[in-house]
Write a sequence for this structure.
């Protein structure tokens, strides 16, 4: 519709919008797409402490795939991503459905569930680190309460450290998932539900068969956002465990940072960033494509 | 959903409330622990436990976190970092929001051949894993003479914020009827006049949402802060992380917690004051506007 509007304008107004948009477009072109290409090129060079623009083929990718620490990071992202998304979605959906039952004090509860999202991962990571530390935190509390044999040393346990990231991550994000689902629930047409009630369907059945399927688009967007948060998650791991003990709770984001900026392995850092981009693009591009197509029709 | 109310018998409503309140406690626990711990002395922390209330609450740990705590080499507390964050966040938020408003206006009301493609290209920036741009950006900031400065961080946040601010404004402006624009052009109003006289006065809600969104994003950023700043330009998140990870012989949890609260207060304040808009900002990116 707007196309037809533009034809009525004078020539100045024809190119003015393009001119005004141009700086942002150029910035995006350079700083997103140009930098992707630049980083991509770096990943094919022998760069170590300083960037070096000689072509070196796939050596950095070979070194990356031979690097045990990288595979620990990938596996951790798998564990963290799956649990973080799964638990946040389940908890968020449950809270949204429960809050939707005409709960008194809904506003207060919603506020409480959501506030973690306002805080930075660095802040909450610092808090969780204190709660989860075996010396004076939760373990100490349980001992004082008489559970002498209670141990909770995940934070310093190489096998379990990644799970502490899940605990803090879910705490941070599940309220946000709740808000998304609640917004979705409130958007569903009541008449469908009334019709089902007239047919004598029970409440759980109505939810399971009618309401939850209606939430599919929200489900999808939420999954996308959580996946994106999981792949990018850097702050939380840095604040909570710094990737440790050792590198047991490394994720690709912290791996990239330490290779590129503290260990002088720019080439490997660039290659690992490309792997992160590829993973995210595989998820997001089809999603954006379908979103924009729907937008056009809608 | 009023209809469902009578469907739940009394006992299950009781269980419902029990679950909701239990979960609320889980969400509140870290905040409770942060606040109470920050008001205790270290002796009290060792004697008591995570949940015990402070016997003689005091703000000593707060004063120390603000003015004297050691972050790495220097021992000036967090105040410097805090003001760095203010200096970084305020211009970044203003500039990126302004750019987003204008871009969104063009991409919704002045579409041209290829503008949808431009919008799609910009939108990918919302999801971009920032690790991909870190190395080239570090080099570029060096060339621009902006490396390790607050100006550099402002620049990065503005450039990287364009994607989300444009998305917010564009989705909002799509909802403003085109007829309004058409009528204005018949009256002889041009590009800027329509923007300032018609679009901008209707934009208050989305300006609120975008400002809050950008403020929390930028204030809470750690990655750019830790990579692109140094010494006296580091933001509060980096300061807090340095403080909490400084290996000293005695770990002062009360100071750590006070520092964490100081770092979190501005966004928490925004959340409390403008909670409604905050939620809308969070959901706006996901549920189509």
């Amino acid at each position: 519709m707007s196309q037809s509007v533009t034809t009525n304008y004078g020539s100045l107004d024809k190119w003015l919008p393009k001119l005004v948009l141009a700086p942002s477009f150029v910035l995006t072109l350079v700083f997103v797409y140009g930098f992707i290409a630049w980083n991509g090129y770096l990943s094919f060079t022998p760069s170590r402490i300083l960037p070096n623009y000689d072509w070196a083929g796939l050596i950095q990718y070979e070194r990356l795939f031979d690097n045990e620490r990288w595979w620990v990071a990938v596996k951790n992202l798998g564990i963290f991503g799956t649990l973080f998304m799964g638990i946040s979605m389940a908890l968020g959906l449950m809270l949204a459905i429960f809050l939707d039952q005409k709960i008194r004090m809904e506003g207060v509860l919603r506020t409480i569930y959501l506030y973690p999202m306002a805080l930075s991962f660095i802040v909450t990571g610092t808090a969780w680190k204190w709660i989860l530390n075996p010396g004076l935190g939760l373990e100490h509390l349980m001992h004082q309460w008489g559970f002498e044999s209670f141990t909770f040393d995940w934070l310093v346990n190489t096998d379990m450290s990644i799970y502490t990231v899940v605990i803090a991550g879910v705490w941070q994000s599940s309220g946000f998932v709740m808000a998304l689902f609640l917004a979705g629930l409130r958007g569903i047409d009541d008449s469908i539900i009334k019709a089902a009630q007239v047919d004598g369907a029970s409440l759980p059945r109505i939810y399971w068969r009618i309401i939850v399927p209606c939430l599919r688009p929200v489900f999808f967007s939420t999954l996308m956002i959580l996946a994106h948060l999981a792949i990018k998650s850097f702050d939380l791991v840095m604040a909570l465990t710094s990737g440790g003990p050792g590198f047991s709770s490394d994720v690709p984001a912290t791996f990239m940072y330490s290779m590129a900026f503290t260990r002088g392995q720019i080439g490997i850092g660039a290659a690992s960033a490309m792997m992160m981009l590829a993973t995210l693009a595989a998820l997001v591009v089809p999603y954006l494509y379908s979103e924009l197509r729907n937008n056009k029709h809608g | 959903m009023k209809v469902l109310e009578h469907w739940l018998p009394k006992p299950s409503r009781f269980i419902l409330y029990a679950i909701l309140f239990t979960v609320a406690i889980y969400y509140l626990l870290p905040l409770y622990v942060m606040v109470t711990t920050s008001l205790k002395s270290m002796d009290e922390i060792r004697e008591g436990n995570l949940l015990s209330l402070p016997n003689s609450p005091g703000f000593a740990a707060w004063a120390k976190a603000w003015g004297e705590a050691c972050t790495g080499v220097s021992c000036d507390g967090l105040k410097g970092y805090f003001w760095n964050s203010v200096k970084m966040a305020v211009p970044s938020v203003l500039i990126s929001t302004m750019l987003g408003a204008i871009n969104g206006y063009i991409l919704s009301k002045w579409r041209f051949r290829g503008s949808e493609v431009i919008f799609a290209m910009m939108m990918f920036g919302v999801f971009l894993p920032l690790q991909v741009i870190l190395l080239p950006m570090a080099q570029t900031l060096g060339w621009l003479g902006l490396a390790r400065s607050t100006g550099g961080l402002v620049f990065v946040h503005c450039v990287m914020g364009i994607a989300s601010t444009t998305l917010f404004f564009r989705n909002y402006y799509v909802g403003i009827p085109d007829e309004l624009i058409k009528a204005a052009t018949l009256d002889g109003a041009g590009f800027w006049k329509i923007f300032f006289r018609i679009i901008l006065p209707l934009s208050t809600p989305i300006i609120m949402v975008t400002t809050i969104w950008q403020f929390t994003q930028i204030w809470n950023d750690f990655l750019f802060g830790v990579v692109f700043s140094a010494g006296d330009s580091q933001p509060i998140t980096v300061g807090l992380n340095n403080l909490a990870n400084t290996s000293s012989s005695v770990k002062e949890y009360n100071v750590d917690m006070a520092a964490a609260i100081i770092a979190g207060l501005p966004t928490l304040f925004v959340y409390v004051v403008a909670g409604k808009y905050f939620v809308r900002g969070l959901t706006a990116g996901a549920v189509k506007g």
Remarks:
- Chain B is about 70% helix and 0% strand.
- Chain B touches chain A through 106 residues (CB under 8 Å).
- The radius of gyration of chain B is 24 Å.
- Chain B has a mean pLDDT of 88.
